[in-house]
Amino acid sequence: MNKMTRETTQRARSLRTIVAPLIAMTLVMAACGSDDAAEPAAEPAAEAPAAAAEPTGEPLKVMTVTTLNAAGPTYQNIANTAIAYQDYINARGGIAGRQLEVTVCDEQFDPAIATTCAREAVEEDMVSIVGSFTYFAESIVPVIAESSITWFGACCPITPSELSSPYSFNIGNQPMYAVGMVERAVSDGCKSINAIIIDGAQVFIPPMENAIKALGMSFGNVIILPPTAQDYSSEVAQATTNADCVVAVISETPFITWNTAWAQSGTDAQQYGPQGNLNSVSAAGAEEATDGNIIAGMYPDISTEPFAEYRVALDESGLDTTALDYNSLGGLGTWAAFVGFTQIAETINGEITAESFYQAADTTSNLDLNGMVPVLDFTQDWTDGLEGYNRLFNRSVVFSELDNGKVVPLTSEFKDVSNLATGTAD
Question: What is d(CA 299, CA 285) in angstroms, rounded to the nearest whole number?
Fold first, then answer.
């Protein structure tokens, strides 16, 4: 590993509070949680699991890969969550009585450095790479798979290897939440629906069009939105013309500009957007205009019971939870990934290695994360689904809404949108 990357990794191992500037550039990046200020996490549960015996033996070494130092978007919330989980679980006896040791590898938004992270995982005998997000997983997954190291629990798989490699075990479900937006708009009684897709997220269009066709409708217009603009007034006017509802696949930073124009337009159209993007940050200053807007996501809100321990861990970590967005795909997804890793690792009889963990994950048919996601079956590929998405095990969505600019849970049960994504009505 080059000197800069190794130094960054060492810093991340003992990471506590780092606030870095961020301008989100793409949908997935912002949904994973930007470094923009966000609403505070809910208060932790009154009681947390009690401390257990000190972990013993050799530590279980895992890695989390993300972007920390780059000119563009960074994901400090992913790194912080990984370290918070490490400290939380070690204070409660570790995993199978062993200490968890997390290395956060900063790929610096560089595919060559991402490959270096993969090689370090191999050289350091990592058990798995857990809860990561990077645009360069294609530089990682094939490298680690040669040593049976799994790519485990990704919130936002976007590359071919993530979505097809037998060593990839995704917990997130991109682009299913966009399908969920369409389903919800139709079920809410929308009669004329336009779609707004930020440029670079066109991969979302086919499953969205499959869904609306299966529901007996079609989009009045599909508008490709430039990712950066001073004003979106003309696009808002286009989106709301002859439409009572708009489904918007927009990242957080452009959503700020979009919602400003949305409020200025005076439209009474209903808006649907993605978790982590249509949120309290992007709604600030447009609270009245966005009131009642629907949010489709992969995970329940951070304030709900499934994430009670996450709230405790964040509180114990001393992190400033108002500085970064932890109620996002990156924050929630990383926590869910580590919980899943722990559950599977503790089923292993004998040594916990990359190979034994892969075998255990590959035979896990009932991974129950207590409501963070539906119960997952890693033994069944999605062979009759979207082509190239066979390792998408979670294909359900959950909904929240904006209430005077604050995100509040709307539904507690997951909606499976597998059939809609392929163009078949339920």
Answer: 26
